[in-house]
Design goal:
Blueprint lengths: L3 E8 L8 H7 L5 E4 L4 H13 L7 H17 L2 E4 L6 H15 L5 E6 L7 H6 L20 E6 L4 H8 L4 E4 L6 H11 L6 H14 L26 E5 L4 E4 L10 H8 L9 E2 L4 E3 L4 E6 L2 E5 L2 E3 L4 E21 L3 H18 L6 E7 L11 H4 L5 E10 L2 H8 L5 H4 L4 E2 L9 E12 L6 E6 L1
Parallel strand pairs: 1-2, 2-3, 3-6, 4-6
Antiparallel strand pairs: 1-7, 4-19, 5-14, 7-8, 8-12, 9-10, 10-13, 11-12, 14-16, 14-17, 14-18, 15-16
Helix pairs in contact: 1-3, 3-4, 6-7, 7-8
Amino acid sequence: MSSSIRIASGQGFWGDLPNAPIDQVRKGPIDYLVMDYLAEVTMSIMQKQRSRNPDRGYAHDFVSLVGKILPDISERGIKVVTNAGGVNPDACKDAILDIVRQQEINDITVAVVDGDDILPDIDQLVESGHHLHNIDTGAPITDVKDDLLSANVYLGSRPIVEALQQGADIVITGRVFDAGLILGPMMYEFGWAWNDWDKVASGIVAGHIIECGAQASGGNFTDWEEVDDFVNIGFPIIEAKADGTFVVTKHDGTGGLVNEMTVKEQLIYEIADPAAYLTPDGIADFTSVQLQQEGENRVQVSGVMGKPTTDSYKVSASYKRGYKLSSTLVYSWPNALGKARKAGDILQDRAKALNLEIGEFNVEFIGFNGTSEELVTEEALAKDFDEIELRVSVSGDDRVDIDRFGKEIVPLVLTGPSGVTGYAGGRPKATEVVAYWPALLDKKVVQPRTRIFKV
């Protein structure tokens, strides 16, 4: 068993800094590189991709990344754990194995963790009494079943541990809870018992701190003026010990900032009840966390307490919920606000004249109330704004009607108030609205799976 390990975050979401994971591998010592690609909406995007092409449905950026760092991780024994598999971890695995063959590095073992995708099983689950009621509304999933795009269980870290036990160098998962990508290596390396709830909670907290990438090392920080060198921002690293304590840090010589406040801001990010942060592997009490600045860009975390896990998995499902369209036009002085308001009125009246089925119609005036609900009053109209951006957004169930409305916007250039620009983008098109459906599912009906592959 290890006494300490270094786990580096290389990705906070699909689309994060491309060079960050490369820097994590090459700018200092690490034992694990963890890569978090998935958000709730990402699963629906990947599901759409797979429906069009059975070989897609995963984070293809990950494959090109592995092509760049494969010699590094092979020579230095760095293990990679990622949820880049999305809704098609097998296809992701195949693409990685192709890279391994091309580079003739034959000592790499790839693991696939899946079993999280329950979309094909919805009918069977409902028939057996698992109605996947919406956590927020209580409605059964049958209300939206025909419009479902994705449905995935947040698996725990046990199958990741199984993969590491079987010698995996690269672990590719589907939907595992974000912090599980970090907890898994800690459980494996330290041999912690699954019912040692304080240790499990420590791993959960460690994972939560670095799962969002540089958000723990100066990115998106309230006191951003204190952050040095955003251009070369360093991503966070966990120096974990077998006793459950750990240090949050980053590689020497990189930009960014790690202090108690950057860590605290990430700790309270998306946690709901701070005394009961629920995960498939245990419940972490964030109110028990103790932080201490240990040195420059080093924060020690200790005292984490945990509680037994629940008997349910969280389900993240998405479904189609109509269509939306947004567009902007810029009106210039004089009377910029008055022109923009008149343009919004014209659009609304034309939609009514065309009998378009518009569910929601919203107009904002950027430069005046784009970040507030301030009303356009006579006093406001008297102000001398240099320019105002009109932003109009509509939604509805009929794609044809939403698209038809989009054809009314650019014509305002010659059929509305003067002094307008910003229309070079042409006609806006309706896009599908994807809505979120959170639910709970009995763990007994879910079968996580771990498989091992080599070239």
